[in-house]
Write a structure and sequence with these properties.
The protein is an alpha+beta fold. Helix content is about 60%, strand content about 15%. It contains 5 helices and 4 strands; from the N terminus they run ααβαβαββα. The N and C termini lie far apart (about 145 Å).
Length: about 170
């Protein structure tokens, strides 16, 4: 049986040889419309990597999960980034993806700086408003105290301790 024979052979192969065998089996079956490859260049020598890249050119659609920057730069024209449950599409190879990520980071930092400046202005306004409110409260309190003193003076409720005394004069004909 062919499968049993291949399994027995692959048990004695190195990681690179096993990967090569799997890729040969994959590319020998040209009926696939698209491919999903997980770290296809792991354990491959330079010659095998070049063959992998050449074989990928025959396909219009494939997905590669890889840490191999050279493979990604030569073989892909879109990058999908999955972060925090969100998927974002970037057009171009890996280097172009990094350029876009750098631009995004610069924009985030610029926005953060602008937001920090705006927050500082708002905090200054709050401090100013609190100071103004405090002055207004003191002024109103002073005004109310003065109004109470004047009202007390008008009703004869002057305090002996205050040194303010009121008397009512009665003027009339005698």
């Amino acid at each position: 049986n062919k499968e049993t024979y291949l399994r027995e052979i692959s048990e004695n192969l190195s990681g690179g040889e096993t990967t090569k065998l799997k890729l040969i089996k994959l590319f020998a079956n040209s009926s696939y419309e698209y491919l999903l490859l997980d770290e296809p260049s792991n354990h491959l020598d330079e010659n095998s990597r070049a063959i992998l890249i050449k074989e990928l050119e025959k396909y219009s659609s494939y997905i590669i999960v890889s840490h191999d920057i050279e493979l990604l730069n030569t073989s892909v024209n879109k990058i999908l980034e999955i972060r925090n449950g969100e998927i974002k599409l970037y057009h171009g190879n890996y280097d172009q993806y990094l350029d876009e990520k750098e631009k995004e980071l610069d924009e985030i930092l610029k926005t953060r700086t602008e937001n920090s400046k705006e927050i500082a202005k708002i905090k200054e306004n709050i401090i100013s408003i609190k100071a103004w409110s405090s002055r207004q409260l003191k002024s109103k309190t002073k005004h109310l105290k003065m109004h109470q003193v004047l009202r007390d003076l008008g009703t004869g409720k002057g305090s002996a301790d205050s040194g303010i005394h009121t008397t009512k004069k009665i003027i009339g004909k005698m």
